[in-house]
Amino acid sequence: MKKIKQGDEVAVLIGKDKGRRGTVLEVLDNNKVLVEGINVVKKHTKANPNAGVEGGIIDKTMPIDISNVMIWNPEKNRADRVGFKIDKDGKKARIFRSTGAVVDL
């Protein structure tokens, strides 16, 4: 079980977007995440009429390292660490370290 999953709200800790929040769009295999509206770059694309691609400058969301984001705790209104807890039923659940509340509601 991973500490950060798709759909989680995260806060950026390091980089040009430090302090901003966004939703995780995708968790990649190489320990990187795509966060909505974070690490947006300008990409110059060449036109390809055969594929129907227009040329120009587009905005593209690039991956950010998973160690540079923390999950957002709405109760404390700040970023928080994630831990794991095993329930009485034997199911593993993610919890916030500061409050002990379950992340997945």
- Overall, the morphology is elongated
What is the name of the CATH class of the domain at 9-79?
Mainly Beta
> For the CA atoms, what is the radius of gyration?
17 Å
Taking pLDDT < 50 over at least 5 consecutive residues as the criterion, the unreliable ranges are: none
State the helix count.
Answer: 0
The total count of strands amounts to 10
Main sheet, how many strands, which sense, barrel?
A: 6 strands, antiparallel
Helix content: under 10%
Question: Architecture of the domain at 9-79, CATH level 2?
Answer: Roll
Q: How do the strands line up in the largest sheet? A: 6-3-2-1-7-8
Mean pLDDT: 94
Helix and strand sequence: EEEEEEEEEE
Straight-line distance between termini: 16 Å
Q: State the secondary-structure class.
A: mainly beta
Question: Percent of residues in beta strands?
Answer: 35-45%
Task: Give a quick precis of the structure.
Helices cover 0% and strands 45% of the residues. With 105 residues, the protein is mostly beta strands.
Structure report:
This protein has 105 residues and is mostly beta strands. The protein has a domain at 9-79: SH3 type barrels (Roll), CATH 2.30.30. It has strands at residues 9-12, 21-27, 32-35, 40-45, 56-61, 64-65, 69-73, 78-80, 82-86, 92-96. Strand 2 (21-27) and strand 3 form a beta hairpin. The model has no long low-confidence stretch (mean pLDDT 94).
